[in-house]
Amino acid sequence: MDLRKENILIVDDDIDILELLQRHLQSMGYHTYKAVSVKEALYILKDTFIDLLITDIQMPEIDGLQLLKFSNEHYPEIPKLVVTGYPSVQDTLQVIKSGATDYLTKPFTKKELKEAIEKAFLQNKKRKTHTPKTTDSKPNIYSDMVGESDAFRKVTNIVDRVKDNKATVIIKGESGTGKELVARAIHYSGKFSREPFIAVNCAAIPENLQEAELFGYLKGAFTGANENRNGFFQAAKGGTLFLDEIGTASLAVQTKLLRALQEKEITRVGSRTVEKVDIRIIAATNANLIEDIKNNTFREDLYYRLTVVEIIVPPLRERKSDISILTEKFIRKYGIEFKDRLLRISPEALQILERYNWPGNIRELENIIQRAVIMSDGVVDVKDLPEFLKYQINFSNNELKPLREMEKEYIQRVLNHTQGNKTKAAEILQIDRKTLREKLK
């Protein structure tokens, strides 16, 4: 018998209503979370497993309808119940369209609340029972990673296959592609998610301290070792140790890592006692380890031990179709953080983002969106983007044209952007109006 209490999130800007709902729900045996705003509710939804969402509609800044639409899109499995003191036919239609399972008008009795909650859980159970399961389609959100491209799905397909075992994984990809996100997805989506996830950037640890930091040490093992201390291996016991930038590990550390992988045992610095370890190791690199092997800076036997499962994270330029989804994620994140509301991006600004090749990958995109949100007045528009992005022109081989033709097309684009205003167009082109008139002739 499942004795787990269901988690119910209550969202209402009226503190008295929140307290009343919480008392009723706790007396019914439910576990409750409270939020006085949609912003607070979004943080709870992100970090907590919620079984039912109960929300008011009329709230300042972001209203309950936006919360319903957002949760219906990103948490479709959660049933939603609306309570409101402003009932109307139009409100009811909007609520149902937004994915709510029921609508409760204030004031309501404890019995009415209980019946509405039981109805919501029952409808959700029936929906899950009658929803056909498909094997060829996956949601476009995987842990904190998002995407719909074939390149993204190749990555998540491998994550699905390794998440429930402790096979060693190496993740390769350019800087900024999200290698640590992939590692976290493997850990937190699998059956070992309740165990520790320890992330270590090998490049950030001085070479002479790497061995002590990873494997621990005994008091007196070296100058400054004033006590016995556990290393990252001991901290990750039963869980996952993520070794980022593994190519920067010293050769001495590489030797001990090899033994840890082969024999499942380690030795602290200054000790002769062997300790058994039960952890999963995920390594990551943006370097060419084969070249490092040729240069005798990386052990070949360690490379093959690490490469039991290999995941290649594609650069953003190879998954252009995911840019709009990633942009939405970052605009939502920083809109709530900096503006206390959900923002959107104009089609023109999104088009500019989609045609750029992103040498800094997802990290660069996130930084630019963060800046754009700060600079925006409610809608992220072209004016909020860095200047270098606005005038990017990317060519494919079949688009190569004479300079005169390209100049003509670009001038026309600028004129379209300024809605025919020649003075503004001349300023953008950094030429005077007379020169612009001559070129237009």
Automatic annotation (TrEMBL):
Keywords: ATP-binding, Nucleotide-binding, Phosphoprotein, Transcription, Transcription regulation. The keyword Transcription regulation applies. One of its GO terms (molecular function) is sequence-specific DNA binding. This is Sigma-54-dependent Fis family transcriptional regulator. The modification 4-aspartylphosphate is found at D56. Residues 7-121 form the Response regulatory domain. One of its GO terms (biological process) is regulation of DNA-templated transcription. Residues 145-374 form the Sigma-54 factor interaction domain. It comes from the Bacteria. The keyword ATP-binding applies.
